[in-house]
């Protein structure tokens, strides 16, 4: 069952449909509609945040749902505790994404203890890593999927202008038997193609597809720059 689920992601586009407090699209039904539209466009899975969004999206799409729960905005905040992860699973996600950095976790459990408990529950776990050492730790813990999600956000690696292809390549070469997904700052189809050609199991694209405020800012900046010439 686990291998079939993970195999269904291989070679595909995962769309991250997320909006945060205070944003115009912040509503579970809106995010469910965004997710449904992404699935209609070919997404092989949807990554989403928050229990209400997970539940709403799971009811609208037939593709796997990767769930997480962000609490706070610094330190370990992506599904930071075992309780958060179990709540995501109870909300209906097929795969739970958790912070896989080597920083202290709020509940005092180690990353390995968290993964062991989730595996005992029958869960499939995706590790959001910020560095190669994070990925090595997650791999040692038996995590099902590794991801570059937090590269450039934990202080261990420079924040690249686009996806961190170097880290992706290091992870793929070191852990050839474990699926490695590329996530983070993939803003164009060419960048998505680049990481797939580098060997990524799948690619996650969020902002460039599902965040109109950011997309509008990109275009607005380009227009304003042209107007100053």
The radius of gyration over CA amounts to 17 Å
How would a textbook summarize the main sheet?
8 strands, parallel, barrel
Element string (H = helix, E = strand):
HEHEHEHEHEHEHEHEHH
* Oligomer description: single chain
Task: Describe what this molecule looks like in 3D.
It is a single chain. The protein is of the alpha/beta class and about 230 residues long. Helices cover about 40% and strands about 15% of the residues. It contains ten helices and eight strands. Helix 6 links the parallel strand 5 and strand 6. The chain is globular, with a radius of gyration of 17 Å.
What would a concise description of this structure say?
The protein is of the alpha/beta class.
Give the topology.
Layout lengths: L1 H6 L4 E6 L10 H13 L4 E5 L1 H8 L6 E4 L13 H10 L3 E5 L11 H10 L4 E4 L3 H9 L4 E3 L17 H10 L5 E4 L5 H9 L4 E4 L1 H4 L1 H16 L2
Parallel strand pairs: 1-2, 1-8, 2-3, 3-4, 4-5, 5-6, 6-7, 7-8
Helix pairs in contact: 2-3
Protein traits:
single chain, 229 residues, alpha/beta, eight-stranded parallel β-barrel, 41% helix
């Amino acid at each position: 069952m686990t291998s079939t689920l993970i195999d269904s992601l291989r070679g595909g586009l995962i769309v991250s449909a997320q909006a945060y407090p205070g944003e115009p699209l912040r509503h579970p039904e809106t995010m469910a509609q965004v997710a449904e539209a992404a699935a209609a466009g070919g997404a092989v899975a949807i990554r989403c945040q928050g229990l209400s969004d997970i539940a709403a999206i799971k009811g609208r799409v037939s593709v796997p749902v990767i769930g997480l729960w962000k609490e706070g905005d610094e330190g370990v905040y992506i599904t930071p505790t075992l309780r958060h992860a179990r709540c995501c699973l109870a909300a209906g996600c097929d795969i739970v994404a958790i912070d896989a950095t080597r920083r202290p976790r709020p509940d005092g459990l180690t990353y390995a203890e968290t993964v062991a408990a989730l595996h005992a529950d029958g869960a499939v776990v995706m590790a959001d890593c910020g560095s190669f050492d994070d990925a090595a730790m997650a791999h040692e813990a038996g995590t099902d999927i590794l991801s570059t999600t937090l590269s450039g956000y934990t202080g261990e690696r420079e924040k690249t202008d686009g996806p961190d292809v170097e880290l992706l390549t290091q992870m793929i070469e070191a852990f050839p038997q474990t699926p490695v997904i590329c996530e983070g700052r993939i803003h164009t189809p060419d960048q998505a193609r680049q990481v797939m050609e580098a060997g990524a199991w799948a690619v996650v694209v969020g902002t460039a597809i599902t965040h109109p405020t950011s997309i509008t800012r990109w275009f607005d900046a380009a227009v304003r720059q042209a107007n100053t010439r």
